[in-house]
Amino acid sequence: MRQEIVLPKLDSSMEEARIVSWEVKIGDTIKIDDPILIVETEKSSLEVESEVEGTLEEIVVDEGETVPVGTVLAYVSSGKHSTDQKGSSDHNPVKEENISPGKTERIRVSPAARRLAKQRGVDLTKIKGSGPRGRVILKDVAEAAANVVNQSVKTENKVIASIHAKGKRVNLTSMRKTIAQRMTASFMNVPQFQIKKRVDVSSIVQLRQAVVSSIEHSAGVRLSFNDFLIQAVALTLKKFPRVNASFIDSEGDPYILEHEDINIGLAVAIDDGLVVPVIHQADQLSLIEIAEKRTKLVEKVRKGLLKPEEMRGGTFTISNLGSVGVDEFVAIVNPPETGILAVGNIIEHPVLTNRYETEIKPMITLNASFDHRTIDGAYGGRFIAQLCDQLQSGQWNIFSTARS
């Protein structure tokens, strides 16, 4: 019996991966759950385990190739299927439609991709699908639309490239390609607005100075400013559930999904891009617990050991560039989340007090970007105002998760 080894969907956002290395060779005997190859997604390098057993008969996709989820990678003979796992074609089934453009070849296309193509005037017959079995997916249409809009820019770039032929060409990694695609899709498809507000963080600075040494000694963990941000955002999201939500563009019946859990993603910079580990149920954690989880996750990011489940399920993202001296910036919403918070450096600013006197206080600038389909400006403004109140309140759950 000849069986297929297909590229599985290793996380919810994965659409393709690059084959880094095969850990087995033709003629090897493979058992179920044996690691057989390493792939690189937009987020990390991962091992793929076999879902069948037998003898490796043929390798179809060579090292270095990038293929979509569901692609047949190899064939195994004289084995059996796992009783508790299925191929990736059974994971997250996607409704699709067949379009027959006259007498030309049939096109496999998802409903969302077909709708976007109609809105943007994109000819589906000219798109090569990157989904399983060549299906045209939303990303393919978004890229085609962007290509049409930016054709003049690309032409100019070619002229520039020919003039500056001595420049260094840097090929994109899978991670950088995916970041480019996701951010382009977000910018094109998500109507976004920003709200900026400066906030006094004196209470946080004073608390860290007062207790950081004793906490580090007793708990064995260092409290960072990000830990206070994470707890403040999580507690504020409890009062503003519409921000802790996603706009679901369901075919013909869009709706807003308010998430039960509050899961905060923290953008971490690496050499070739950004990785966003997620602290799940952050509203249920003390500052110490948040610091412990953040420390472990960031360490895994730096070592390239972050697991797919540690990047899934985010409902809101924080991006803090204060550590590299950035005063303020604007971040792009990370779909399907509704909001992302961009945080700048702590800067000493003169502040006018109620007595018409000036004091120098540590201030940060918060710049939040929101999906306008989910919330409006007034709701976003109230969310930011409440977040600033929380940051200035001095009320923190340091050791206990008990809520007042």
TrEMBL record:
Keyword Hydrolase: no
EC number from the UniProt entry: 2.3.1.-
GO terms assigned for molecular function: dihydrolipoyllysine-residue acetyltransferase activity
Residue ranges constituting the Lipoyl-binding domain according to the UniProt record: 2-77
Family label: Belongs to the 2-oxoacid dehydrogenase family.
Cofactor(s) listed in the protein's UniProt record: (R)-lipoate
Protein name per UniProt: Dihydrolipoamide acetyltransferase component of pyruvate dehydrogenase complex
Alphabetized CDD domains for the sequence: lipoyl_domain
Bilayer-spanning residue ranges: none
Disordered: annotated segments: 78-104
Gene3D superfamilies, per the entry: 2.40.50.100, Chloramphenicol acetyltransferase-like domain, E3-binding domain
SUPFAM superfamilies, per the entry: CoA-dependent acyltransferases (SSF52777), Peripheral subunit-binding domain of 2-oxo acid dehydrogenase complex (SSF47005), Single hybrid motif (SSF51230)
Main enzyme class: transferase
Record lineage: Bacteria, Bacillati, Bacillota, Bacilli, Bacillales
Protein keywords: Acyltransferase, Lipoyl, Pyruvate, Transferase
Biased composition regions of type Basic and acidic residues, renumbered to the chain: 81-104
Domain Peripheral subunit-binding (PSBD): 108-145
